[in-house]
Write a structure and sequence with these properties.
The structure holds two protein chains of two kinds.
Chain A (H helix, E strand, L loop, with lengths): L1 H8 L4 H13 L28 H4 L3 H6 L24 H16 L3 H14 L4 H14 L2 H14 L5 H15 L1
Chain B lengths: L1 H26 L7 E4 L4 E3 L6 H10 L3 E2 L8 E4 L3 E5 L3 E3 L2 E3 L3 E7 L2 E7 L7 E3 L4 E5 L5 E2 L10 H11 L11 H14 L9 H10 L6 H17 L2 H11 L1 E5 L2 E4 L1 H9 L8 H10 L12 H17 L5 H9 L9 H4 L2 H12 L4 H6 L3 E4 L3 H20 L15 E9 L5 E5 L17 E2 L5 H9 L10 E4 L4 E2 L5 E2 L10 E4 H6 L3 H11 L1 H10 L18 E2 L1 H12 L3 E2 L5 E5 L5 E4 L5 E2 L3 H17 L16 E6 L5 E7 L3 E9 L13 H12 L12 E7 L13 E7 L19 H13 L1
Parallel strand pairs in B: 1-15, 3-4, 12-14
Antiparallel strand pairs in B: 1-11, 2-10, 4-5, 5-8, 6-7, 8-9, 13-14, 15-25, 16-17, 16-30, 18-23, 19-22, 20-21, 24-27, 25-26, 28-29, 29-30, 31-32
Helix pairs in contact in B: 1-6, 3-9, 3-10, 5-6, 5-7, 9-10, 10-11, 15-22, 16-18, 16-19, 16-21
Classes of the chains: A mainly alpha, B alpha+beta.
Chain lengths: 179, 759
């Protein structure tokens, strides 16, 4: 009944709590996870884990997990959380700044410096497809088409497939593989 | 007359020899400068999830002092709203990061504002990187070269006042000094004082043995005179301040004021105040006799004497000298052991040796910039400590002997950026400060179930045959081996689970199902997947491979899981970012190198299964420690007879592999979950701030799947899982949906959803 308690704990008004308790028991609702809500709401033993993990609970071993019949299942991901578009990272402001510095460096012919700046941007925000795009363009310009293709593919795996960037990456990838 | 000829015959070649010695010493490299190894510089920017505590920890490691008021470079102040600090500036490969006053503010867990003292917004700054070690030549001399112009003026005046007042006048030797010394020697009846000039001391240090003999003294004089004729006074002084021996630190001899300043005060020489540099100048007379750590009273008396000489010579006023004499020694010697990172440096050295000769590393003054993250390293060490403490507290299980942890139970750990492959921390053993057997790099152990993702990935790469919802039999079977034995894999709980899905079999780590799947796929196919994932070691061609009868190091397992973590792109795990020469020119830059080995779509399915492992399978005890909101993926591993406890897992920002076991292959009675996973969980609770992002690749569709039939189900049906499939492989036939009464009626669901929204 853990999921049940968890639900009740989160309710703001006592009246609603009473009502829901009544309704749920009246409907003989069994709190089997059915994939409808986010992982936060239906985690087994959430109450216990609010405090410091007690030894008993933490003792759960591979043996017990494998042997036990598990009544509740935690969703790996809720349907709503599955995105088709990547989230914009909160780190991307800093990375964007470095990318624009890299663009300037390229304009001045300082390729090595541009690469350094982009590598730095990647360390700050390793999932920015824009950075991969820019690095891939430099590699292509240098004639390192193999690495350009790989970087373009990596960028493609991280970006919204319907975006303009995806189109650019696609074009870059086909140019790189055409060499 | 013959005597003079004889003297000439001996002396002339001797002078020539001395001359060539000097020429050689000064024309080639004057000093051998060991390569310096730096940690990653801490990047600060708005939106960073660096905590206030972590910034403070970093500043303290860099030796920043708490300042009152505005503060100098290398100082910080804690405010209610954040932290104010004054950076030191640093020459990086891509430009100079200038020293400046910075205000950092937080909102929640995020750095929300960075500004200059004048209130201007800063987008992005870097702190100077922590030096984590050097690569020393045979004599183990360490130096940090400093130019005369970077040395505090007061310090130079002080040095000359104490050691050699006539330095800029004498020709290399000082007759007055020598005669004064001789007088003392005669009075005491033995040879105790040299009356040496700085030039003589330099000559002595550079060319001559350390014995106090008259013959050395005699060679010293002509060499000092010759040196003065060849080299400018300023250069001699600069050489002196870089050559002077100040302290012995274990097997490392610390030469030069700059390094001594780091050693005793954890500060650059430029920042030293009179009471600090007076101590260093005073120590020249007897480095071990006046060692401020070992003989603080003696050292303080000597320092105060130096201060009074400075006042007497007019270098500072009486009041200033008195004030300085009241100050404590102000030592900030980091316990040497806490900065030692033998396991990480070991990796750095190995990766350097791929491109460099050891001699060049030891002498050319290269600067090596690494990915080492001291904050993560400390968290990694701490998490192992906590895990071992838990294991020690645990009562021994029946029939498993008295102690679960033999004192010999040890561990290895490697942490990397989950997308970049940057190695940020390495723990080589339970006592991480001591160099020795590096279990993260050199212990090759059977990986047990850690191999299984490769088996399932091989299956998922054949989408017309297998999906996560495909069934496989978890039953006993026997396979006769060429050598006459019979292979009959067993499950950990000695039970078979019948027909199970691939998802269930992997996340619960069922051996019989995995072996059966492996047999269907064949050894060569799994072998080739392991190679795609980055395993380069020999892989035995036996069916027991499917259950992990392959011996790999933590490092190699990390490479394998890195490929999975970064969506199928293999990247070499790197410790080094860049190498600069002594002048600051880039010698080599190690940029990102990636290679797609597995299709991102297929890896997405595997990542899903490894997340299922963490939520509902063998890895779920991690969520006793981790917040539910942090999405992670991983796999436990336990070798035969529980000799090895493994865990490999990753989130959005980090990937880490932990191994626990005994060096002598003794059994441990730990499983992957009870041992290595515990340490991994503590680590990720401390360092991980980013969930594995659930971004669905274009070639993947999600479909509600009935748990018992594997057929298409619907959101409102019971026992329906929302599973990923490669497009076109999702189930088409509709399962019978469970009866209405067994799930929440719509109106109740409506209410339930409203309540959820209000949370």
């Amino acid at each position: 009944m853990n999921a049940f308690f968890d639900t009740r704990r989160s309710i703001k008004t006592p009246l609603a709590a009473c009502l829901l308790t009544f309704l749920q028991s009246a409907c003989t609702y069994t709190p089997v996870y059915d994939g409808r809500s986010g992982p936060e709401s239906n985690f087994p033993g959430a109450n216990e884990r609010a405090g410091p993990p007690d030894q008993e609970a933490a003792e759960m071993s591979e043996h017990q997990v494998e042997g036990a019949d598990q009544p509740t299942r935690v969703a790996v991901v809720s349907p709503d959380a599955i995105k088709h578009k990547p989230a914009v990272s909160n780190k991307d402001g800093a990375a964007a700044k470095l990318r624009s510095q890299a663009t300037d460096a390229m304009a001045e012919g300082q390729t090595a410096r541009a690469e350094r700046l982009l590598n730095r941007a990647l360390r700050i925000s390793p999932r920015s497809p824009e950075t991969y795009h820019q690095l891939a363009s430099i590699k292509l310009e240098q004639g390192a088409s193999g690495q350009a293709l790989q970087l373009a593919r990596k960028g493609l795996s991280l970006c919204d497939p319907d975006s303009k960037l995806a189109e650019q990456l696609q074009r870059l990838a086909s140019r790189a593989s055409g060499y | 007359m013959p005597l003079v000829v004889l003297a000439a015959i001996i002396l002339v070649p001797l002078l020539f020899w001395l001359n060539s010695e000097i020429e050689q010493k000064f024309s080639s490299h004057e000093w051998t400068i060991p390569a310096k190894v730096y940690a990653r510089p801490l990047e600060l920017y708005v939106g960073s999830r660096l905590s206030r505590q972590e910034l403070k920890q970093e500043l303290e490691m860099l030796g920043y002092k708490i300042a009152s008021g505005t503060g100098n470079p290398g100082s910080y102040v804690q405010q209610r709203s954040g932290i104010g600090f004054h950076t030191r500036g640093f020459q990086f490969g891509d430009g100079f990061e200038r020293a400046q006053r910075v205000q950092a503010q937080w909102s929640g867990n995020e750095l929300s504002r960075l500004s200059t003292a004048a209130g201007e917004t800063l987008d992005l700054i870097r702190l100077e990187p922590l030096q984590i070690g050097g690569i020393y030549p045979g004599q183990n001399e360490d130096r940090l070269l400093v130019e005369l112009s970077d040395t505090p003026k007061g310090m130079l005046d002080c040095l000359l006042a104490v050691e050699d007042r006539g330095f800029y006048q004498h020709p290399g030797i000082s007759l007055r000094g020598i005669s004064r010394a001789m007088l003392v020697n005669l009075r005491q009846g033995r040879f105790t004082q040299g009356g040496s000039t700085l030039t003589q001391q330099l000559v002595k240090n550079l060319f001559l043995s350390q014995d106090r003999t008259l013959s050395r003294k005699l060679a010293e004089i002509p060499m000092a005179l010759m040196l003065e004729r060849k080299v400018h006074k300023d250069d001699i002084l600069q050489m002196f301040i870089n050559e002077v021996f100040l302290v012995q630190d274990g097997n490392r001899a610390v030469h030069g004021f700059a390094l001594a300043s780091q050693y005793f005060f954890n500060q650059p020489l430029q920042e030293l105040l009179p009471h600090q540099y007076a101590l260093l100048v005073g120590m020249i007379k007897g480095p071990s006799y006046y060692h401020p750590g070992r003989h603080p009273d003696r050292a303080k008396r000597r320092r105060d004497l130096v201060l009074s000489i400075m006042a007497e010579q007019g270098i500072m006023s009486e009041q200033e000298a008195e004030y300085a004499a009241q100050l404590p020694l102000g030592l900030n010697m980091r316990p040497t052991r806490s900065v030692r990172q033998p396991a990480y440096l070991d990796l750095v050295r190995r990766q350097l040796s791929e491109d460099y000769r050891l001699e060049d590393l030891q002498t050319e003054g290269l600067r090596v910039f690494t990915n080492f993250d001291p904050l993560v390293q400390l968290a990694a060490e701490k998490s192992l400590e906590l895990a071992f403490a838990d294991i020690d507290k645990r009562p021994a299980r029946q029939g498993k002997g008295e102690h679960i942890t033999a004192p010999s139970l040890d561990a290895g750990m490697l942490v990397s950026g989950s997308t970049t492959g940057d190695v940020v921390a390495v723990v080589g053993g339970r006592r991480p400060r001591f160099a020795g057997f590096n279990r993260a790099l050199d212990a090759r152990r059977p990986i047990g179930s850690l191999v299984k993702p490769a088996v399932y990935l091989t299956a998922l790469e054949q989408p017309d045959q297998y999906t996560l919802a495909s069934y496989i039999d978890d039953e006993r079977f026997e396979l006769p081996q060429p050598d006459g034995s019979v292979w009959a894999p067993d499950n950990f709980d000695h039970e078979s689970h019948g027909s199970v899905t691939l998802l269930e079999a992997l996340s619960r780590s069922y051996n019989q199902a995995s072996a059966a799947l492996g047999m269907q796929l064949g050894i060569p196919a799994v072998h080739s997947t392991l190679e795609d994932l980055g395993v380069t070691s020999d892989i035995p061609e036996l069916p027991s491979l499917f259950l992990g009868a392959v011996e790999l190091s933590v490092m190699e397992v990390a490479t394998m899981y890195q490929t999975i973590a970064s969506g199928g792109f293999n990247t070499p795990l790197r410790a080094i970012r860049e190498i600069l020469d002594a002048k600051g020119e880039a010698v080599k830059t190690y940029g990102l190198e990636i290679e797609q080995r597995i299709a991102p779509d297929t890896v997405h399915l595997l990542q899903y299964a490894l997340q299922e492992t963490m939520r509902n399978g063998t890895g779920r005890s991690a969520y006793h420690f981790l917040p539910d909101t942090l999405a992670t993926a991983g796999k436990t591993g336990t070798s035969n007879d529980q000799r090895d406890s493994w865990f490999a897992g990753f989130s959005g920002d980090y990937s880490a592999v932990v191994w626990m076991g005994n060096d002598d292959y003794e059994t441990t009675s730990l499983t992957g979950s009870t041992g290595a996973l515990r340490a991994w969980s503590y680590l990720f609770r401390a360092i991980s701030r980013e969930s594995l992002e659930f971004f669905r690749p274009t070639g993947v569709v999600y479909a509600w799947t009935d748990q018992t039939s594997g057929l298409l189900s619907d959101e409102h049906c019971r026992n329906a899982d929302y599973l990923p499939y490669l497009s076109g492989t999702e189930p088409i036939r509709q399962a019978v949906c469970s009866a209405q009464g067994q799930h929440r009626p719509n109106w109740l669901r409506w209410l339930f959803d409203r309540v959820q929204e209000n949370r």
